[in-house]
């Protein structure tokens, strides 16, 4: 009788462990939406010498995540909602070297509802589009524009990849990075989105397939 009970208990325990393992594996499965989540405080340098920092902020009356990029003295902030998938707008600050005020916004773009939004669930190999309308404000006034006429609107989720980079000269593998390819009339852009970081690698090719320019994360300053 003892052996029978012991065997039954082991069978139940084994089944429970199997279910837990399956649940854990499911929870750990990569998600397309996860690639766009941004973590405040993450900061890094790209190989084109620009510096990037993720901040939590407000934009156009909404809670937002800001991707601050400083490149050659030019500061630009791209704003997204808290999922990182919905574009809210951007700000470009004055260029001191050209007589501008580096602390004041010189160019501001604000998207209107519905905002351009990356779908939450896209399967590898599937295509998706981004659409929306915005208003660009400069010293010359306001200018309306459609997302598709100014930015690339057609995208393909190539798939999840493990991206090997060498930030601070130390080899590091970024797991479950989303490789997205965007196509325009004259070029194509391959972007690699890493969870918490945003775009950590980009490659722009001409219509003939030649690499026009590229950059990748090569310095890490996580806080």
Can you describe what's shown?
By secondary structure, the chain is mostly beta strands. It has a 14-stranded antiparallel β-sheet with strand order 7-10-11-12-13-14-1-2-3-4-5-6-8-9. The chain has two helices and 14 strands; from the N terminus they run H-E-E-E-E-E-E-E-E-E-H-E-E-E-E-E.
Mean pLDDT: 87
Shape: globular
How far from one another are the termini?
59 Å
Compute the number of helices: 2
Strand arrangement within the widest β-sheet reads: 7-10-11-12-13-14-1-2-3-4-5-6-8-9
Low-confidence stretches: 1-27
* Helicity level: 10-25%
SS content category: mainly beta
**Which strand-content bin applies to the residues?**
over 45%
Q: H/E element string?
A: HEEEEEEEEEHEEEEE
In short:
The protein is built from two helices and 14 strands.
How would you summarize the topology of this molecule?
Layout: H1 2-28, E1 43-46, E2 51-59, E3 62-71, E4 74-80, E5 87-93, E6 105-111, E7 127-129, E8 133-138, E9 141-146, H2 147-150, E10 154-165, E11 172-183, E12 187-194, E13 198-206, E14 211-220
Antiparallel strand pairs: 1-2, 1-14, 2-3, 3-4, 4-5, 5-6, 6-8, 7-10, 8-9, 10-11, 11-12, 12-13, 13-14
Question: Main traits of this protein?
Answer:
2 helices; mainly beta; 14% helix; 14-stranded antiparallel beta sheet
């Amino acid at each position: 009788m003892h052996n029978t009970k012991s065997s039954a208990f082991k069978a139940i325990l084994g089944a429970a462990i199997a279910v837990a393992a399956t649940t854990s594996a499911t929870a750990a499965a990569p998600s397309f939406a996860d690639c766009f989540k941004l973590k405040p405080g993450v900061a890094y340098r790209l190989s084109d010498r620009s510096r990037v920092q993720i901040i939590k902020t407000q934009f156009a009356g909404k809670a937002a995540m800001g991707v601050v990029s400083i490149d050659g003295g030019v500061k630009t902030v791209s704003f997204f909602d808290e999922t990182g998938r919905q574009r809210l707008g951007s700000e470009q600050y004055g260029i001191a070297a050209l007589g501008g005020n580096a602390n004041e916004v010189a160019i501001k773009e604000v998207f209107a509802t519905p905002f351009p939004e990356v779908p939450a669930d896209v399967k590898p190999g599937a295509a998706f589009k981004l659409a929306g309308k915005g208003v660009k404000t400069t010293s010359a006034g306001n200018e309306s524009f459609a997302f598709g006429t100014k930015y690339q609107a057609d995208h393909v989720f190539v798939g999840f990849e493990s991206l090997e980079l060498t930030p601070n000269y130390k080899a590091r593998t970024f797991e479950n990075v989303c490789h997205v390819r965007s196509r325009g009339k004259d070029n194509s852009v391959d972007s690699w989105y890493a969870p918490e970081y945003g775009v950590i690698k980009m490659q722009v090719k001409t219509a003939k397939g030649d690499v026009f320019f590229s950059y990748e994360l090569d310095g890490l300053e996580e806080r």
